[in-house]
């Protein structure tokens, strides 16, 4: 998941930079869509790994709702960037920054069921 987020972060601004080169633009677009599909496909198993399989349907449903909200807000925010700046360039950079933010958040995520390292355990 980290790799796909980093690839997305690199490809998003390149979409704007290489918008004039049709072949490269479509290759980058395919890369972004590949990353999108890859991320979506691992969310169910990630949800099950983190929270168990008992409520995986509900938890995955929440993840998909968040995904849907982002699908609504993303184009809206891109349009607001265009209105504010007169171009879409910064929307691509914001999308890349959000991917990097997701990688940072993912680095902080810990499986609640995994054993804690010895130096972090509370001694009684």
- In this structure, how is the largest beta sheet organized? none
Percentage of helical residues?
Answer: over 70%
* Rg (C-alpha, Å): 18 Å
By DSSP, the count of extended strands is: 0
Overall mean confidence score, pLDDT: 86
Order of helices and strands: HHHH
- Overall structural domain count: 1
Which blocks of ≥5 consecutive residues have pLDDT under 50?
none
Q: Return the structural class.
A: mainly alpha
Detailed description of the structure:
Helices cover 77% and strands 0% of the residues. The protein has 124 residues and is mainly α. The protein has one domain.
Offer a concise description of the structure.
The chain is mostly helical and 124 residues long.
Which tags fit this structure?
77% helix; mainly alpha
SSE topology sketch:
Blueprint lengths: L1 H16 L4 H30 L4 H30 L3 H20 L16
Helix pairs in contact: 1-2, 1-4, 2-3, 3-4
């Amino acid at each position: 998941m980290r790799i796909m987020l980093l690839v997305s972060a690199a490809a998003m601004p390149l979409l704007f930079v290489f918008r004039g080169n049709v072949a490269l633009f479509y290759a980058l677009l395919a890369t972004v869509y590949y990353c999108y599909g890859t991320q979506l496909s691992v969310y169910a198993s990630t949800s099950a790994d983190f929270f168990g399989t008992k409520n995986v349907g509900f938890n995955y449903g929440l993840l998909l709702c968040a995904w849907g909200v982002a699908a609504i807000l993303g184009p809206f925010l891109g349009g607001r960037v265009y209105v504010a700046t007169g171009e879409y360039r910064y929307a691509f950079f914001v999308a890349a920054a959000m991917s990097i933010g997701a990688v940072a958040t993912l680095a902080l995520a810990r499986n609640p069921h995994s054993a804690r390292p010895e130096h972090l355990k509370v001694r009684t």
